[in-house]
Structure formats: C-alpha cells, structure tokens
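WARN retry 2 of 3 for item q-0093 after timeout on previous attempt; input resubmitted unchanged.
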Amino acid sequence: MPELPEVEVVRRGLAGHVVGRTVRAAEFLHPRVTRRHVEGPADALARTTSLVVGDAVRRGKYLWMPLADAAGTAQDALLVHLGMSGQLLVEGADAPDEKHLRARWRFDDGGPELRFVDQRTFGGVAVLPLVPVADGGAGGRGEHPEASWAASVPASVAHIARDPLDPAFDDAGFARRLRQRTTGLKRALLDQTLVSGVGNIYADEALWRSQLHYARPTRTLPVPAALQVLSALRDVMAAALAAGGTSFDSLYVNVNGASGYFDRSLAAYGQEGRPCPRCGTPIRRDAFMNRSSFSCPRCQPRPHDAHP
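OK item q-0093 returned
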C-alpha cells in the first residue's frame, strides 16, 4: 500500500490542480468505491456537488479534501483511501476513460477533471464530517516541509497519530511511548496510532539505516536509539519524496500519471540476496506479519531477546 511519501506526492498534485475549484458533478462508477460511505452513494453525491475544494490535506497515509460552501466554511471532507492500487489522476474531459475508472469529479470551470482509478477496488471514497483534533493539528497542507496544518480531520482519522514530517511531531513523546510498548520495533513503527505514514517499505529502510533489527524489543531501546530511528524515518521519507515516491508496477503515481523512482535507491526492502550497500552481506528476507521483512544479517543482527 502507498506510504507517506507516495500519498504526499499525490497531495501536492491535488493542491496544484483542484484546490479552489467548484465541483459541478460527481460520478461513482463501481459499487465498491463508496462502501466506506455508510449512507450510500446518493448521499455522497449530494454532499459533494456544488462545493469548493478548499484544500488538499494529509495525515500519514490518509488523504482528504475539505469541501467548502460559498461562505468558505468546510464541514465535510472528501476522504480518499488509495488502497493497494488506487490512483487520483487529473485528466482532460476529452481523455478516454481508464479501464478501471471508479469515480469522476467534474468542475464548473470546464477544466480538467479528477478521476479515481483502482484496478483492485480495495480503495474508495467517503464524505465525512470534519471534527477538531485534541492535539490541535492534522496532516500536511501547503508545500512541504514549510507546511501549515489544519485544525480538524475527518471523523475516521481522529485516532491517527501525527507523522514524522509534521512540524509539530513530538519527538520526545514518540521515544517515550515507543519504549513503553511491549512489542518488536517494526511492529511498533507500523502502528498508526504511534506514528503515522510508515509502512513496510520505509520501516525496513529506516531500520537498515539505524542498524537495528526489526524484532528488537522496544522496551530495551535507549532514548538515543529511538530518536535515531525517527531521524532515519525522516531522512528516507525526504529522499523518497525527492524521487517522487516508490512506484511498483506503475502504481502509486502522481496526478499526472508519472511514476516515482525511489525503488532504485532501496537498500533493504525487496533486495533479498543482493549485497548490503554498507557491508556486502546478502540481504535476508524473513516472514513478518503475513508480509516480509528485509534486513542485513551482519549490520542488523537479531537480538537474543528478539520479540516474537
């Protein structure tokens, strides 16, 4: 699934192409696309049309567009879950429909339309009320990293933690909460209530940079090591953003369809059998949470008290 850098690439594209435009009409072309909108597709249509896209906002892997009325007040947001293969594309109205087109938004200026394409139909959209968040901020807005931060989020996102690229991220609080967990290090990094935006790819890459094993018990991690992992997450995500994200099989593309190329710079993730860029030892793949975890056996030795 797309992680923070891939979602941020899409958010930036939306900010440049659809923010400030009024939705004239919307179409939902597959029954699964609105399954997260419990009131059904007709309600989603009614709460989308004739409203202005007020912004393009992100928290971790979650992406939404506040919908404002004529007075500029936004009470709802169009939340888009990209799933395994979802793409948001800005296309001319005369462009042929994509094979897996699931939703479309047209605007009253007659310009390019916004399309949601999803081959595997694991993604979807919902129109949800915006609610204030207790920590006073939400996901990325404006140009990264000098971003401003929204004060409300869609209701279903309220439990999601800030992400490492949020200027208001609490480094000391993260280290404290991480060390209070009784779990393995990578499992903790994948917990979106602790730190959002991190998935399999960037967890493996950050742990490789930190020279820490994914099964290291979090309770044994000194504060400097916890902060080192956080720094590595920021570094690898910044590098991925500069490369347009990590795209596999032409998935996770920008709104213009361009693929990212950070996969060329991966040191550990997906590199089984290839030499570690640091020491030359073949990268190892282990089964992990019904997925895989990639690490260097020499640079990232498994601790004797590894968490199961």
